[in-house]
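Hey, can you fold this?
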Amino acid sequence: MEKEKTTSSYRDKIATVDKSGKRNWIYPKKPKGYFYDLRKLVSYVLLLFLFGMPYVKVGGEPLLLFNILEGRFIIFGLHFTPQDFHLLVLALLTFIVFISLFTVVFGRLFCGWVCPQTIFMEMVFRRVEYWIEGDANAQKRLNKAPWTTDKAIKKVGKQIIFFLIAVLVANTFLSYIIGADQVWKIAGDPIGLHVQGFIAMIIFSFVFYFVFARMREQVCVTICPYGRLQGVLLDKNSIAVYYDFERGEPRGKIRKKSSKKAIAQPLKSAAAEPPINPCATCKAGAACKRDKPAQTEPNILQQIQADTQKGDCIDCKLCVQVCPTGIDIRDGIQLECVNCTACMDACDEVMEKIDRPKGLIRYDSYNGIVDKKQKIFNPRVIAYSVVLCSLLLIEIFMLSSRSDVEVLLLRTPGMLFQKTEQGDISNLYNYQLVNKTTKDIPIEFKLIGYPNGGIRMVGNPPISIKDEVTEGALFIDIPPQALESRKSNVKISVLSNGEEIDEIKTTFLGPVK
């Protein structure tokens, strides 16, 4: 018979809002333990990556840049322009499928270990709060206490530090958009020279401050769309933070200094040898004929039997006290759970103290708890994996076939063909060269399929400027006898230092035959 909680009324409400709709402020107890230490290590590595990447450059260009305003994107040294929009869309689709597959297998592990919201909230802002105001109980006492100089210093000081961290975070994210050099320029120059940039920095700073000082776990519970997808993506084979209800129920307090072994021994001796009271008539210390077996202390046997039938959960509620979203993981998998493992550390610590095995709350699946076996590779996981691998192969193929310079060649609108002094038919074209590298590239055009034809450049031979769009014009000359119709298709080879980097097609207009 399953011991899982039969009612699901806890799903009708969230822990951060009371019945009247007023917010319940969450005071999570400071976590500690193996998984928390591991999360700190992962978080510090990711924070180092986040704050350091804007200053890492390759060939004078940042390693990562997402300049939405100018349509410039640099991802690990590869330059992408608006002409590569299809590659970015495909990469985004691949990422979404990967996140879906990851969630199907590992639940909301991303939220607890990698998500910037969780890392900043739990490993930066919350740790500052613990340092200034103390643990959960100390924070509650401070909030209820009357205003004093000490309380004012702590409260105001905390908010100032919060805002300074928010300014740092905002400027870091802005560095990924406009570049670290530009951010420092805005910060160092007079405000009047960069009014728009300064306003953007202030807005970003206040947004981050509001999110981490006031919104907090509400972002994960009510705003983040990824959390809402859990109900669709998770199934009984998904690995997540689970409470082992088979082992933990029925929960209840245990007698002081008791354990399963200590409880079983008194139960056996009490049942085999009922105690005998001294004779009530003669007050003798030894038994006599009038002695009767005394009744055991009321409910002693029942209490001992009850202790032996209890599960490993002693209902200490520490798993609830450390939860940053205020849920009770023992109720089952819930939308608010971000898989931060704080409840796992708290439970393991209690299990050690009462001499019970660790892992009452652990990474597992529903089927892993009920059937004692896990099945990761189910049809849904296989389907997601096939789609993900297909998208990856397509993305790799398209990236490998992507040219360093993208050429756009179009006939000049409104211009008809002309006749040259040599009697050739000439068409005027405009070209655009989109350089996707960090170096200038000399460009040469060569007409294919018309040996007697040629290309005349307007001005000097073009040089494609690094990370820019170069524009110009050229004439294509073809003898009239080589043209088979009024409208012909021609091919042009684009060369750089004698090597072909692209081949383009266009139309050529001539006289009616």
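Oh, and this one too while you're at it.
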Amino acid sequence: DIHAGNLGEANKKALDVLMKGITSLGFILDGERKYLAKDLELLLKNIFAEAVEINFICSPEQAVEIMKVHYLLLEKYNRDFQKVHGSVDYAPLSTLLKTGDLPFDRKGSFEKCKVLLEMAHDLPYFSVIAVNGLRYRNAGSSIIQELGFSLAEGAEYLTQVTELGVSIDKVAPNIKFNLGIGPNYFMEIAKVRAARYLWAKIVKAYGASNHTYASMNIHAVTADWNKTLYDPYVNMLRTTTESMSAIIAGIDSLTVRPFDTVFSEPGDFSERIARNQQLLLKEESYLDKVVDPAAGSYYIESMTDALIEEVWKLFLKVESLGGFIEAFMQGFIQDSVKKSAEKKLNDIALRREILLGTNQYPNIHEKISKEIDAAVFPVHEKDTAGKIGKPLAEGRAGQQFAALRYKTDQYALRKKRPKVFLLPYGNIAMRLARSQFSSNFFGCAGFDIINNLGFKTIDDGIKAVHEKDPEIVVICSSDEEYPDIVPEIANKLNNTAILVVAGYPEKNLEQLQKAGVRHFIHIRSNVLETLQGMQDELGIY
């Protein structure tokens, strides 16, 4: 995808990446700008439309004019319409999800679809209507919700446009589905296979005259939902497995988002890596050489069947509410996705779901000293609702942990970074295990971790604590030893630091609390809430 603010620079970049192996381009147009024929001609200069898929990602208000100008350019340069591939991303229902309003009145929004379809009549491989399932995914939906609501959105277009007198044979092939691809490797493969099956079933129900019209055009995009601000190179691993899922599943085109796209404008390095991930999978792994590598796999086939059943139930539920727009007006779509997002965020806070480098195994040496734009920490709730309904709020899985750690980093620029002193004592196996656990736990907040192998005596440990002058001391030992050592340590520290016990010795809890311990960290702890509480206690703002 290339931002087309500066047309000359965008064209130069497009030609550069085409020379490096890319075969499909997405031009992200400035939504406020009116593009004339000379503008698109400059943008597409020296790009051969019969050899390169060209996609225009534009505002709903621009779509008709962009399509008109592009068609005239194809005529001007005598292109073979049967060989032109691409799309104009006209998606009024996606605008509804984003803003709570349709771009035009209800009738006008779908009449534009009819106009675009008429203009694209001679272009069999150029779609003009888009379903952006990626939007659900980036709002925290489940795979079932992403697919169920995307299909319902697609069916809404079929209903509304055929009611305007357009044949289903013309509408269905001109809809392009932009789906998000997440980290659940096999489930994502099954999702795409289930999508094709169910879309074919829906289109046939509308009376398509030929089974080829029921073929689903799928563009996959690596989702932002699970990408992280801290330890960002892990994002490369995430997008690699996601790309594999998408390709093995049989998508038509793919965008690999650069690893740093969630927190900055991608640079030459991150874009090169994203581009080469695709090229390696194609040229060295040969994933483009097999039509359906997942066919016959019992695991994937049974998963596909299960998905088909659950997604179909959700699709029928939306239809029973009166279709996609009515379900949106009633808040069913937004509420369903919100519940899913809240569950995922809670699982991440409890570390039932792991985001490597964010809520588990953080790189404790990583610091962010520059100021990060507030947009990097999106909110899941939007205050304003549109005329039709409340917008679907997008976000990211690790944003709360990122905000937590960024808060510490910013505080450390003004004052002292809080130190966590690990005080291992007693049982070797337990003290080492709990030291490692504690290091990961407090590392998620960006605190400095002072690790120790262990102390022979409590006095040795207390002496080391006084030398390091930490804000937090974590006692790491076995449950059996805590009743004997915790009161002595608490007494000798004399409230000079926040005292934490690693573990949850339930039998001796009351005794330890009487000794002055208020904090216990363990595998059932809400890591996010605990660390936010620690920040408040330390006055980090």
